[in-house]
TrEMBL record:
Pfam family, one: GFO_IDH_MocA_C3
Span list, region Disordered: 1-28
Keywords on record: Oxidoreductase
InterPro entries: Gfo/Idh/MocA-like_OxRdtase_N (IPR000683), Gfo/Idh/MocA_oxidrdct_glycsds (IPR050463), GFO_IDH_MocA-like_dom (IPR055170), NAD(P)-bd_dom_sf (IPR036291)
Provenance organism: Streptomyces glaucus
Protein name: Gfo/Idh/MocA family oxidoreductase
Domain of life: Bacteria
Domain GFO/IDH/MocA-like oxidoreductase: 168-312
Record's keyword annotation contains Protein transport: no
Amino acid sequence: MRHPDEDEEDIRMAQSQAPEGAEPEKPPLRVGMVGYAFMGAAHSQGWRTAGRVFDLPLTPVLAAICGRDATAARAAADRHGWATVETDWRALVARDDIDLVDICTPGDSHAEIALAALAAGKHVLCEKPLANTVEEAEAMTRAAEAAYRSGRVAMVGFNYRRVPATALARRMVAEGRIGRLRHVRVAYLQDWLVDPQFPLTWRLRKEQAGSGSLGDLGAHIVDLAQYLAGERLAGVSALTETFVRERPLPAGAVRGLSAVSAHGTGQVTVDDAALFTGRFTSGALASFEATRYATGRKNALRIELNGERGSLAFDLERLNELSYHDGTEPGERAGFRRILVTEPDHPYLDAWWPPGHGLGYEHTFVHQARDLVHAVAEGRRPEPSFADGLQVQRVLAAVEESAEKNSVYTPIAA
């Protein structure tokens, strides 16, 4: 008579043997994620889906999710498919069964977690902006460079690079389709702070968020403008404004809150809106607007590039489309035309649906996971790297410095 253990061993052996002719199982990339709110949900979607859509060299495994609230973290794990839960990010970083640490926390913890993860020999993905200060971003970049020499990579999460239409725009600029760049104009508009009774969340406190609309939205458009242009900003001139300077305290206390009024409100210590102009290294001019007070605008990001031979424009509210004007065509038939970015030879789209079937916001995170998995497997620097995130951080710091200097207005004579 066979022992029951022998039956179980046979079952395990049968399950482990691939059918004849089947591809061998790919090595796992075991991911541990810190943070589980909005951005954690978006990253979870990316990790869960990338290997089911794209032919990846490694298989992403949702190994562990981390959050201080054990009940909430467990609920997020069950909802998004994470195998285990940690309540201390240090414990997650120390685990031998974690290959990559994904950081989806407020900015004040990015540097500490990333530095610890890189020191522990993990790959790292860190949400934008890279840090709250240039000094933190510099330390993170140094650590990332040292880790790269030891075979570990680090990437910052600027997901709008992964919209197929913006990736196509980058390709067209690199091919010279619009010629030498003259202008870039970009705006990122939201309205979720218009109500003055909206509570004082962590995003409205400098010690946690670093900055307001500038870091939250401005980081995206600075990176996207430089990515599409293929060059960096050399200088900026800026204005910022905080329209509502005190807000009601939320039901739970805000970490690190120091100034609380007798009326149960706290001080807003970040900008609500930022306006700035810039000059690229080539001499091309740029204008930027980032605000969370554009009434009626929910997540409106628009960018236009004008060159000597043509123009390109992208609108996130029409994210499967790219507008292109070929300035070399005769005037009688020239004009902006719509490119429907759903063809299999467009960026990322060979693995998705037939032409004409559009993608959405969540797919940018699937593409982000895809690109990072390839970088890990190939041992190459991912894009955008921590060095790219540091450069964006320096632009944000220059904007803040310029806005402080421009805060005193010179009256205009009547």
